[in-house]
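R.M. (postdoc): so does anyone remember the format we settled on? I'll just put the structure tokens first.
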């Protein structure tokens, strides 16, 4: 059982665990299931238009009475971000956690706070952690290079956590990157984190919308299964990313000029070019192994596709019958 910091509630969850927002694979079903299990489930907006964003929030809310999160990516959403945020806040029927990938624009945190909601900012360096805290973030997620997906920095998570804590950043911090076991969660808590943010662990949740072949590849992953590359930059340039190794990542030259799959997004059937940042979902047909299969170094410890509630229980070391425990919160 993890030793949870006895701190005041900020995220409004029982357990020291946050499910990362991963566009394409973390929809309302997964977010609601994680929330019902006592952790913070997160629905991902990615590039969705405001109407779709609001619908995702409403669909999540119907399936859980708990607090949940909404993930936004300013550098990808671009000019759509203000409308995304407005639609989410208008659709909210409870306090939400707006989970922001990277430093947000100056207007975002005050706008969310004025509406009565909480802001979690993901960062990849101690300097960005200090800036986000100074800008008013309620909680920070410190992303280490072990993490699957797009990277915000280049430090191991334990090193980044120690540096941020040494600088005295005055808000709760979560460790993120390569976390698949309860003993890892407990170790980060002992080191001073208020909880952990996990992504790959929930790609293999039964409620996720990741393609079955993608999930199976994570289950079958060995110690050397992932690599950091820049091969999947179409649609999200400028960020290196950790993915499962494939013919695309290991080729001498980046493959280009061909389509590898078809997928459906908000009812539209779209071709997927080789090098696209899009993940393979249950709607995807084609050469799944040639797509961006984001996965962290902890993939080697994944043994099966499981319901989200079982993943939460495994990561926290708590049985479903455990009594409520302290919430992720502010510094004592």
């Amino acid at each position: 059982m993890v030793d949870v910091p006895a701190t005041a509630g900020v995220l409004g969850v029982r357990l020291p665990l946050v499910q990362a927002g991963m566009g394409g694979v973390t929809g309302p079903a997964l977010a609601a299931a994680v929330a019902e299990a006592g952790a913070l489930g997160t629905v991902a907006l990615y590039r969705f238009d405001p109407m779709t964003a609001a619908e995702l929030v409403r669909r999540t809310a119907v399936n859980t009475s708990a607090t949940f999160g909404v993930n936004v990516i300013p550098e990808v959403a671009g000019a759509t971000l203000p409308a995304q945020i407005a639609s989410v806040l208008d659709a909210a029927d409870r306090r939400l956690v707006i989970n922001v990938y990277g430093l947000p624009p100056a207007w975002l945190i005050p706008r969310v706070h004025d509406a009565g909601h909480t802001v979690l900012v993901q960062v990849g360096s101690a300097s960005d952690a200090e800036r986000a805290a100074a800008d008013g973030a309620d909680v920070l997620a410190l992303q280490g290079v072990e993490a699957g997906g797009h990277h915000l920095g280049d430090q191991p998570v334990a090193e980044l956590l120690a540096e941020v804590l040494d600088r005295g950043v005055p808000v709760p911090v979560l460790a993120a990157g390569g976390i698949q076991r309860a003993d890892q969660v407990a170790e980060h808590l002992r080191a001073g984190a208020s909880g952990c943010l996990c992504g790959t662990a929930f790609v293999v949740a039964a409620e996720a919308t990741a393609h079955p072949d993608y999930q199976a590849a994570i289950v079958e992953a060995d110690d050397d299964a992932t690599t950091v590359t820049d091969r999947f930059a179409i649609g999200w340039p400028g960020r290196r990313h950790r993915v499962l190794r494939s013919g695309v990542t290991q080729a001498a030259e980046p493959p280009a000029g061909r389509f590898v799959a078809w997928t459906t997004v908000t009812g539209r059937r779209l071709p997927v070019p080789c090098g696209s940042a899009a993940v393979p979902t249950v709607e995807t047909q084609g050469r799944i192994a040639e797509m961006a299969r984001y996965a962290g170094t902890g993939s080697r410890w994944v043994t099966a596709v499981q319901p989200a509630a079982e993943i939460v229980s495994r990561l926290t070391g708590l049985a479903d019958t455990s009594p409520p425990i302290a919430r992720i919160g502010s510094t004592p």
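R.M.: ...and that's the designed sequence above, right after the tokens. Also worth knowing: The chain has a mean pLDDT of 92. The two ends are 22 Å apart (CA to CA).
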